[in-house]
Specification:
By secondary structure, the chain is α+β, with helices and mostly antiparallel strands. It has 7 helices and 15 strands. The chain is elongated.
Length: about 300
Amino acid sequence: MSERKALLILHGKQALNEAVRAAVEHKREQGWELAVRLTWEAGDAQRIVEEALAAGFKQIIAGGGDGTLRDIAQALAARPGEASLVLLPLGTANDFSRAAGISLEPAEALDLLDTPAHAIDLGEVGGQIFLNMATGGFGSNVTANTSEDLKKVLGGAAYLFTGLSRFSELHAAYGELQGPDFHWSGDLLALGIGNGRQAGGGHVLCPQALVDDGLLDISILPAPQELVGTLKNLLSDGFGIDNMFVRNRLPWVEIKVAEGLCINLDGEPLEGDSLRFEARPGALSVHLPAGSPLLGRAPSISRPG
């Protein structure tokens, strides 16, 4: 099979995206053979990946949002070394792609087909993987939108509490986190476990995260005793919410909570009162821009062939 042959797995909602169509035609004019398959329902991404690998494709393009990227990454991670991944960000947030420096312009994103691939880490919890980040928070009476009052107090961290419509609905719970040479326990409002750096459409939660260091970045937001008053004082004093976070970098971390913790795993919900998160070093081959902020070292592999 030609080395300049790839399969684009495109989220069904993007079937009429003219920018994507033009980008595909442009790569074909450059000599690439690009096949396109659409997803329609749950399980399609995994099935199409398996069909593509059986057909001998060595490059897979994931066209969609963070959830689509996660589904395709999980399918590829189950078949290590067989194909590399190109990210074509077409979602609303595109958090991993933005942090990695991948262009949101389809034609520029597809140009990554011509760049070396990098072995990057993945996160894993309960047999599920995540490419970008697991975020969690506690709350009650969840609604569709983050309250404007909460945004004014928390600024960029408000996304962690999306669905909490009033201050009175903020709800802390006791949690315990344990990892190598690390232990933290107390009341917490939210946490982030990052392979990537940001979530919620551009809000940086794990600012030092790298995808090739074999570690997960842990960010914990403890609950102050006087929640609303403390947060308002921090903001007015110019310190900001960032100073409240407890952070560490670990190969694994176990979380136990007094009540169920709702986790968002790259867009997919996950619940549990005892969870173990682990880094899977070098688990996926991904084409990233030269000088990507998420890379800590030079490319270690080339495109599978």
